[in-house]
Amino acid sequence: MEGALNVNWLSEDFLKVMDTLPKGKTLFIYCQKGGRSARAAHALDSLGYPVMDLSGGYAAWRVKNP
Predict the structure, then answer these.
(1) Is 37 among the domain residues?
(2) Average pLDDT, rounded, for the chain
(3) For 32-49, what is each residue's pLDDT tens digit?
(4) For residues 54 and 66, what is the distance between their CA atoms, to the nearest angstrom?
(5) What's the pLDDT score for residue 3?
(6) How far from chain centre, in Å, is Cα 31?
(7) Is residue 20 part of a domain?
């Protein structure tokens, strides 16, 4: 997706990278199928980041947005 920042949820640096982003802006989180992004969104929400998770992941979005 245009303007997306690719940050690996499984990376040791995940929270360090997220810490560089402003907490006042909503983060839109997605992965291929939706599982990893749901876990990442939950973790970020608990840290005070406003987040929106793309339900069903990028694959589901592509079906609706070919």
Answers:
(1) yes
(2) 90
(3) 999 999 999 999 999 999
(4) 16
(5) 81
(6) 7
(7) no
Q: Is the dihedral of CA 50, 48, 5, 20 positive or negative?
A: positive
What pLDDT sits at residue 55?
A: 87
Report the number of distinct structural domains present in the chain.
1
> What DSSP line would sit under 1-19, residue for residue?
-TT-----TTSTTHHHHHT
User: Which residues form the domain of 58?
Assistant: 27-64
Within 10 angstroms of residue 32's Cβ, the number of other Cβ atoms is 12
Residue 18: partners with Cβ closer than 8 Å, 6 or more residues away: 7, 44, 47, 49
- Whether the model clears a pTM of 0.70, i.e. scores above it, the answer is yes
Helices and strands per DSSP (H, E), number in the chain:
3, 2
